Amino acid sequence: MLESERHIAVWNACLEIIRNNIEPQKFDTWFRPIVPVSLVDATLTIEVPTDFFRDYLETFYLDLLKLTLKRELGTAAKLVYMVRPVASQPGMTFPAAEHSTPVNRPVSINSYDPSGSRNPLVFPGTRRIQINPRLNPSYCFTNLVAGDCNKMGITAGESISMNPGKTPFNPLFIFGGPGLGKTHLAQAIGVEIHEKRPDLVVLYVTGNEFKTQYMDATMGNKLTDFIAFYQRIDVLIVDDIQDLLGQGTQNAFFNVFNHLHQNGKQLVFTSDRAPVELKTFEDRMLSRFKWGLSVELTAPDYKTRLEMLRARSFREGVNVPDEVLSFLASRVKSNFRELEGSLISLIANATLCHKDITITLAENITEKIVGTQESSFSMDLVIKTVCEYFNITRDVLISPSRKRQIVQARQIAMYQCRNLIPSCSLSTIGAELGGKDHATVLHAISTVNDLKATDKLFRQYVEDIEGMLKVTVEG
């Protein structure tokens, strides 16, 4: 068999397995139209007619596809879709979902007489229920981009996923500002545990939901059932735990925490502040939060933001030019949520309005999302400060000179203008610094970010100039 035909042979073998596991009519409808495109290592690309077709396969046949591919290509098998809605348009590729929606095994829960006057000689009844883990399969480790901002949290989460309840990271307390990936990381732990240990009961709940459930149980005289329910959980993930307000709610949670922790169950919490800043919690609860590991998620750096944008655009099946991704990464800095929102808005505008994805469109989108913040800095001040630092004139800075020191000074000036003056467009910066185009400015910003990470002396240049600028403005 020719290597160029291997993808066809593999897909045909997959079809034989699939044919034996579904009804003939469904096989003809959903699998005969599929065309194998390529096989690179263990990644098989198939062509499907429409987005709807792809979504239907993901919804109803993902598990069957995953098992079939693993049988033919091994555990490293991956599936990528290519959609060609119009013959004259280039195909768009979409990676297959990594995980199906998690489902817990049924568990038995003790059921008590709500009157409170139980006969001590009569055993309580039991009922079997299906606990919805409430996990989003897209919030998996595969879709998490690691950087200095979250590396420790991801490492701890992966360790917990391998051996839940048996590591020193119990509880795991994840804290940080909004949009930094706390929910994604917490759910990724749950998704990974469920995949590795389907025998464990996983539950994701928010602090506010726990509080509401407690209040409903109290009013319905079912507090004992409420506690019994939570004591059957093997992995409890509580998001936004700072919302657990009220002495009664915290007492109930204290009892749940103690039972689960003492029985080797895994606890994962997220919060918008560090444990020491949870002023509304009793000391006994705060001390338990500190038993395991507290991890802070911080704002992502440029490199991490750029990598996240590339990964998300790939998952969306859209080819976004590198210069546009670089622009977004340099413009939207505060958190992943705003960054992701900017990318999705950009793709939606380009798709619905039939526009090309350009720097200009990206500028218009980000202006609506992160605004055009007023700045105390000006381009003249930045240029003047850079010239003073490197002991050169303005004319030399904006000249076509390719001397290393002049080029670096010009790149730092472009970087500082973009970093300190959000309303300053790339084209304006380029025009002011030697008549450069926006692509040159983007390259300069990227170069400065790279050199800051690898060249200690260069990083000192950037920090010194930034310090001088801030002293001038504040002084």
Summarize the structure in words.
It contains 20 helices and eleven strands. It is flat. The strands form three sheets. The chain has a five-stranded parallel beta sheet with strand order 8-9-10-7-11, with helices on both faces. It has a four-stranded mixed beta sheet with strand order 1-2-3-4. The protein has a two-stranded antiparallel ribbon with strand order 5-6. It has helices at residues 6-19, 24-30, 51-60, 62-73, 151-162, 182-196, 207-219, 223-230, 247-262, 283-289, 302-315, 322-331, 336-352, 359-370, 379-390, 394-397, 404-420, 426-432, 438-454, 456-474; strands at 35-40, 43-48, 78-83, 92-95, 107-111, 125-129, 172-176, 202-206, 235-239, 266-271, 293-297. It has 475 residues and is α/β, with parallel strands linked by helices. It folds into four domains: 3-95, 2-Layer Sandwich (GMP Synthetase, Chain A, domain 3), CATH 3.30.300.180; 127-297, Rossmann fold (3-Layer(aba) Sandwich); 302-370, Helicase, Ruva Protein, domain 3 (Orthogonal Bundle), CATH 1.10.8.60; 379-474, DnaA protein, C-terminal DNA-binding domain (Chromosomal Replication Initiator Protein Dnaa, Chain: A), CATH 1.10.1750.10. The chain starts with 5 loop residues before the first helix and ends with a helix.
